[in-house]
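User: Please predict the structure of the protein below. I'd like the answer in structure-token form so I can feed it into my own downstream comparison script.

Assistant: Understood. Taking the following sequence of 415 residues as input:
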Amino acid sequence: MTMPRFARFLALAREHTALIVDLCADPDLLSRAQLLHYLEHHGVPPAQKDALIDELGQAAILLAEPAGFTVNPAVVDLVNYYERRGRLISVTFLRDQMRAIAELTKRLQRELFATEADRAAILDTIDDLYRLVREVREAGLDHYVACMRLLGDIKRAGGKQPLEQRLQDLETAQRRYIEPLRVLIDPGGEYVPRIAQLRRQVGELGRQDALLAQSQELDSHRRRLAGDLHFIDHELLRGFAAIVDTARTLLRSLLDEKSLKDALAFCLARLDQLWPALDATTLVAAGRNTTQAAPLESLEAFFADVVHRRLLPQPRALAISQPEQRRAEDLVLTEGRIWQTIATAGSIPSWPAFVTGAFPGYAEEEQLRAMVLPLLRPHPRVALVLRETLFVHELSAQTLQLRDFGVRWEEHHAR
């Protein structure tokens, strides 16, 4: 394709993108009548149809055949690779759309429950909601398709790209396009309840028979909006969850591959140490024994078993440790013991600090439960003394910070 033809191709692609995409979707031979129908469908004026067909031929988009026209296979491959792969979008766009939908949902609720319903105002609100919801549906669906195809590209690039490059591509996709979806699909977040609230309002509008009888347009828009909301709730959000799961599975697969290659390099660098182990009896952790090591042609399977710790190259006798018997009181801090501890101490200036010092042998989960018990379950004889200081305690996996408070055991309390 020469440079003038390439420039002509780019100009036509920008001006008639939708037309070219539709032409590429038709794999059959196009007659002149069918081609003219496509041009008419995309709003090409009759006086410009013949000139546009000539331009598409000069740009090598259309190839003239004895019985009609065919689309250049190179153009078809290009369109299928880019246009039909969906479009990756910013999740910030979806978030902003959801916020706008929430504001319109509040307005719709006020208008529905007003003393006198304003049909024109409700219709305008439904129109705005339909536009925003349709944008979320279409953009979200494009994002879903693009993400799944992107993950598929990373998975299929095993023989073309090094493992480090595929891991880097997955990390970039995870950070930009996948991880932010967790906020949108979280049932306890702020976005999923907004969709549910809007569905309830649309359902409430469907029960306004007198209002809907005055406007067929309002009823039509309400039905379309309900259909889009159903799609988002039952298809799109589940698709986003599938993207997150697929990315997690792909990451696990790439890490397994990396572990296998690292183990293979490690074993090949120490063949003098591993070769005697291949002739020995290998103990399998799953409970079965093998008396013959894998031959050289299947050595990769052996290395995979080594990586996943299913094979132990140095046999040794199995030893079973007897279970240690301990009292339940030494493992679980019961509520009765916590209240009894407070009653015995009388007054404790800092209850969180007291728990860390009085129960050091218990699991961190039990200590945390004991710290917050006076706050979550008030006791008639326990009085709280809130303080303005901050209590900080380093746990094994996180740092605990909370407002410090003391407890005091009251011998007499109001009945």
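That's the full token string. The two ends are 94 Å apart (CA to CA).
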